[in-house]
Sequence to fold (419 residues):
Amino acid sequence: MNRYLVASSLAIAGASGSAFAQEACSTYVIQRGDSLRELSMSVYGTADYRAIYDANRDVIGRNPNIIQVGDTLQLPCVDSAIASGEEKTEAEKLAAEMAADLVHAAEARAAKAIAEAEGRVAVAEAEARGASSEELAEIRANAKAEIEVARAEGAALIRDADGGERPAIRDRQVLMITGGNYAPFTDEGLPDRGLYTRLVETAFLRAAPEQAYKIQFVNDWNSHLDLLMPTLAFDATFPWSRPNCEEPEALSEGDRNRCETYNFSNPFYEVVDTFFAKDGSGYEEARSYVEFAGTIICRPEGWSLSHLDAVGLYEPAVTLMRPESPDDCFDAVMSGEADIVAVEAHLAVEAIARLGYEHQLIENPNLAAIKSLNVMTHIDNPDGETLLETLNEGLEIMQQSGEWREIISTALRYQMENG
Fold:
């Protein structure tokens, strides 16, 4: 009988009848059906098993997905488990804490600059009768410049906090950032913190099982691209759509900047980008994008406009509203502030049900587009290309083995059964 078992991220320890009644600062003998993920959940309350793996590398070997029945594992004490799960070195921990403090400070300065600049624009617009269009344009340009200066200052401070050259990617912890409220893809309240989070973690485990990593949730999605990624405080962010970078002349300024500033992984998943409008408005039945001319279209800040640009839905043909969250867009349509929400279908179905707008906000079945969801790294990150190569390799392994499809079907089944 083969004494080795593959403890994949899909393994369920309970299927074997194995019961974890363990505590930290103790030992555990591996039984058939066990997995490090389930053992970590039992002992530490987290699926991140790297504390156990790091304490037992000499026993387990280079691949934490293969553990040997009968081997004895040391279960680290709580403090050491937390430490090993969060940093590779004390210096790295200090740098991360400094970066976090500076991020908050930079965000505060940027927010203040934005508020002050927008206030001046509002005053100028209120007095537009007495101001020339040239004066108003100059005020807006100065406001935009002030905002960019605040962001650049924050980026420079955090880069300086790094304190020197990074160790090789294999010798340090990779830091990735995502956000919540994006069911079924990313949210801390979902199983495995979401479908896309599970795909990224599994890709790491298949292609580079010894690579340490951490995934941080920051729900202000726009800050990922404006502040956190440019500072190189994080190595990667997900999931984001890739604009058609091969035709930059057809892209909005924001999408061109994304193409010029970020590198992209292969697509881990594809989604339907579509439109929602009030029942009875007529927009939910439109068969041509021309019928949207003159409307107010709401799309959250930070979301790509490439699909809208490609079909002529850009200003001044339409008015764009860009709030922070998709929920704000749905509220805006219900209150009459906007006519249409342009958003991803999975997210919309979940949000509409949660907000109580079912049967009031209707998806247009005629006008939609397929877009990919990718991992992005900043072009200034020296480890960015290596990181994307690793993830692409893991994705290919998952697709060839059938694990990718199994993860997808499991997550979507959960979403259907639990709303």
Notes: The CA atoms of residues 87 and 93 lie 6 Å apart. Residues 90-126 form the longest helix (37 residues). Confidence is low (pLDDT under 50) at residues 1-19, 80-95.
